[in-house]
Every structure is written in structure tokens, then in C-alpha cells.
Design goal:
Two copies of one chain form a homodimer. Chain A is about 10% helix and about 25% strand. By secondary structure, the first copy, chain A, is of the alpha+beta class. In chain A, the strands form three sheets. In chain A, strands 2-3-13-11-12-5-4-14 form an eight-stranded antiparallel β-barrel. Chain A has a five-stranded antiparallel beta sheet with strand order 6-10-9-8-7, with no helix packed on it. Chain A has a three-stranded antiparallel beta sheet with strand order 1-15-16, with no helix packed on it.
Chain lengths: ~300, ~300
């Protein structure tokens, strides 16, 4: 019989009988409805590709408000629509990057040309659940408002982190911060060295398995060799602008909830059959925040 | 102008003038020939796919000797050749898995049916360069013999880690350890919880950008829905069995060398233009060991 490597990250089995050790999936299956929070439609960006794929991105206005406002303004103005934008860079174990081809068009109304460097924010005002395991990049790591954060209690700062699927704002050399017209998503091991160097503005919550499987570009930095290889973007729309009936809807697990606490404890200490030796720890980018399509009523 | 996200993981620029801060690429470019070690042809496995791609895997006999001996025996016997084997599982942010379809064929001569659990080894006898930054999974991490390791000085044990591109032996539930006929490679964020639960036997050092871009499987665990979607394997051969002229040849940077020490220091503390704020740390799976095709004489 073919041995199948059991999947620890996202167990698909139903809740196990009481005699078996609980899995993270068991915890999610038993989560009360109140532990799931709606993602506002204003924070959902819907990217439709010419190849028929749809990618949904959740924006993080609490962490990069000016960049997020720019991105919403670009989307609302149709900046990336109608064949003007494409995925033009896919670099293995690093990023997928997209945006408009070079253009002299004036920026849409409301876009801040040079946003402030929103590479971190004040820790104050953020409800924090410490992860409780050491991190090589920051004094402390944990979760806040449904997001993974690295933080420094002494400096009083907190930042989103470059985890798998997370979206950042491409930029030129400092002091440019990028205006949000060119974005990238992480498709490999978390490049955390970018954390306080570039603005993280959100994460891919739908269609990530499409984004990560594009052919890698052969030019320097993973740029596609010629524009014919680019993956066209048909449209980028905010979910809030879509008719209610065709609006995607997602929820995230409240990172302040008891359910998320139990989930993390089990993620760090798997005791089900396959895990003969629990890890006894977990890194921030493996301590993913569960997100789901809103269940039908 | 299109802003291009500068690439920190593998800078492609030539050595910078003396006035500019050194980059990790500068250090590699200036490495003495003696800092590069040949990978023995006995440790190189060449996987040719039906779609024309070639993948090269470096085996790690110092860490999983019985599993590696099995894998060599499978390769030498032609076990995976002639359309009998395929990639049949691609799970996003997790693994690509391959092997033979179900078979009742007797195992090749020399294959140990149930190898010992080579999930870690004795620390004694390993030259270790400590990384010097905290790790959420192990008391200590560092490098040894060209590999990233997690180790526990108290228990006296060391293990290879599940980093991007690393190859492990698929298995059923414990106490099965897998005989090596079914292997997987990591194509996402390092799933370190697997570290002391499964045998790591090597890493992909050629063709990884092909492995990571296969379409994700739609069945549970990323299995392809039907066998027609499988990516066929034409042959798997040890480089040592190939004619010298067509034998691939690779070198790795000696992890005990001063060059690797400088390289790691700069990886953890980038000071070149883009990195306005050096990370001040690095995680083990980002502290990759440089590997290159052996330069022509």
C-alpha cells in the first residue's frame, strides 16, 4: 500500500472519538460561532485573473492605514482593470509580484504618492496574545486582531510579519515606501528579514494555491522574460463594491478567543498518532490564523 | 518606473565597490576555492521527469544512513524507472510527494524493509557551528557538515530540519518509518513540527523551481484526483552510476569555514541600501547553505 504522509497542518478528519488525542482540526470543528469574526467587505480585495482564477486578499488597515487606503483607491478607480495590470514576477521560494506596466497615467484621486513608512505601528492599543515561544527576529511574537505580529514592549512597537501568503508593498530603495500600486505575496519560507523594511498590508485568503503554482520567471529576480509570459489581471475590486449576492464573505478565528488558545496549544503539541514526539513549540508563521468562507445559514 | 522589490535572498549583483556595505553575495563571490566542498557523486540523485525537467537531490548519509542506503538501492535497481513512478501529491505550502504506484513487487536486494527511526542522531562526532539565535523548536540550532541542524546538548542528539526544499521519507503511522520508496520535498514554509517525527534524508539542489510550481492536487492531502494528472518520472539514477561526462557536479559552502561565518553574519544583518533596518537575527531555515554547480576549470 502506498504510504501517505499524514497532514498535520490542516487535518481533514472529523472530530475524533474521546479516546483519541484532540487535534487542531477537532478544536476548529467545535469552535462556537462567536469565536469566528466577519471580515468587513471593505477589507476584502478580489483579484480576477485572465486565466480564470480568483484570488481574495484581506487587507490590514489597523497596521498600514495609509497604504491600505491607497490600495482601496486604486481598486475603486479601476487602476488595475482591463488588461493594464499583470503578474510579471514569480521568484521561487520568495514572491509573486503584480501591478501595472510602466505608465505615465496620473495617480487616481485620493492616492498618497509617498506614504509614511508603515513598517511598524504603536503597540499601545493592540490587544495581544503572546505566542510564548522564542523568535529569532523580535523580542516577542504573538497575535492581535486576527494577525500574527512581532513586537517590542520596550520600544512600544508592533509589526505584521512576512509569512506565507502575506502581501506587501513593493518599493524602490529607501526612502521610497511604494504607493501600493505594485504588490507581492510570499510564496516560500517566511522572509522575515523584510519585516520592518517593507509595509505588509494583508494576506491572501482565497486562491493562494493558484498564486504559488505559477511558473517561475527566468530573468533576474524572477521577472518573466517577455511580457507574453505575464499572467494578466482582468480586474481588482473591493468586495464592498460588488453586489451583495456576488460578494465573497470570509471569517477569521478571533485570536483573542479561548478557541484560538486551544488551537495554538495543540498546534505546538500534536499528540495524535502520527506525531510520535510533540514539537513543544511553534514559530509565528506556522501559527496560522484560521480563515474560512462564511458558512451558509 | 516599475518599482522592483530588491532580492535579499540571493543577490545577483557583482561585488560592490568598497564604499558600499558588503552583501552576502559579495562574500560568496570572494570565497576561496577551498571553502567550497565537492558533493560526492554517491550522494547525488538525479530525477528525470516525463515533462523534461530534471531534479537533483543531495542525500545526507551522515544523518539517515539506513534510509539513504535504501534510497540508493532503489535507484540502482531501477525501482522508479520506466513509468512505474510519479509525482502524485502536491499540497500547497506543504509537500510534493512521489513514488511508485501500489505494487506487489518484491523490494530490491539490499533494501531494509523497516529501517530504524533515524529521526535524530548522536550529537557527538558532529562539528557544529551554532547559529546563535533562538529557535522555537529546539534548544539549539546551527550547521554541521553542510547541513542545518537542530540539537540538544543535554540529550546529546541532533537532527536535520524540514526547511524549504528538504526531502523526507513518507511513512504510515508509527512505528512505520517508511522504507524510502516514497519521498517528499517541502514546497512551503518550513513545517518544523515534522522534524523529529519523520526521517529527513536530503535536499533538492537542482530543479526546485520546477518542483514547487506543479499544480496543487484537489483531493485530500493534495493528492491528484486521477492518475492522468500525475507527473511521470522517467528515471531516478545515482550520479555515481552515470558516465563521468554526463554526471552533474555540485559543491556546497563548507559550513565550518570563515566564509560561511561571514555570510551568515551578513544574512542576519543586511546593511545594504534596501535594508533600512537590519533584522539582527535569522531563523535556521533562512540561514541556507549555499550550493553551486561546480565551476568549469
Amino acid at each position: 500500500m502506498r504510504p501517505i504522509l499524514i497532514l498535520p497542518l490542516l487535518a481533514l478528519t472529523a472530530a475524533a472519538p474521546a479516546t483519541k488525542p484532540k487535534t487542531p482540526a477537532d478544536v476548529l470543528a467545535a469552535a462556537p460561532a462567536a469565536a469566528w469574526k466577519m471580515i468587513p467587505a471593505e477589507d476584502l480585495m478580489v483579484v480576477d485573473l485572465a486565466n480564470g482564477s480568483r484570488v481574495v486578499i484581506q487587507l490590514a488597515p489597523a497596521f498600514a492605514p495609509v497604504h491600505v487606503a491607497n490600495i482601496r483607491a486604486f481598486a475603486r478607480s479601476g487602476w488595475w482593470n482591463g488588461g493594464k495590470a499583470a503578474i510579471y514576477r514569480v521568484q521561487d521560494n520568495y514572491v509573486v509580484q503584480w501591478g501595472r506596466n510602466e505608465t505615465e497615467d496620473p495617480l487616481p484621486a485620493g492616492v498618497v504618492k509617498l506614504p509614511p513608512a508603515e513598517y511598524h505601528r504603536r503597540l499601545r492599543g493592540l490587544p495581544v496574545r503572546p505566542l510564548g515561544y522564542p523568535d529569532p527576529y523580535a523580542p516577542r511574537v504573538g497575535h492581535s486582531l486576527g494577525w500574527p505580529i512581532a513586537y517590542d514592549p520596550k520600544a512600544g512597537t508592533a509589526n505584521l510579519t512576512h509569512c506565507y501568503g502575506y502581501v506587501g508593498v513593493a518599493r524602490d530603495l529607501s526612502p521610497d515606501t511604494g504607493n501600493g500600486s505594485e504588490l507581492y505575496a510570499i510564496i516560500g519560507h517566511a522572509p522575515r528579514a523584510l519585516d520592518r523594511v517593507i509595509a505588509v498590508v494583508g494576506r491572501v485568503i482565497g486562491g493562494m494555491e493558484k498564486m504559488s503554482a505559477f511558473p517561475r520567471g527566468k530573468e533576474a529576480l524572477g521577472i518573466y522574460k517577455d511580457r507574453a509570459q505575464d499572467i494578466g489581471i482582468t480586474s481588482v475590486q473591493m468586495a464592498s463594491e460588488l453586489p451583495a449576492a456576488s460578494r465573497p464573505s470570509y471569517q477569521y478565528l478571533d485570536t483573542g478567543s479561548a478557541t484560538f488558545g486551544s488551537y495554538l496549544r495543540l498546534r505546538a503539541n500534536r499528540k495524535d498518532d502520527f506525531f510520535i514526539r510533540p514539537a513543544g513549540g511553534i514559530d509565528l508563521c506556522s501559527a496560522t490564523v484560521p480563515v474560512r468562507a462564511t458558512p451558509a445559514k
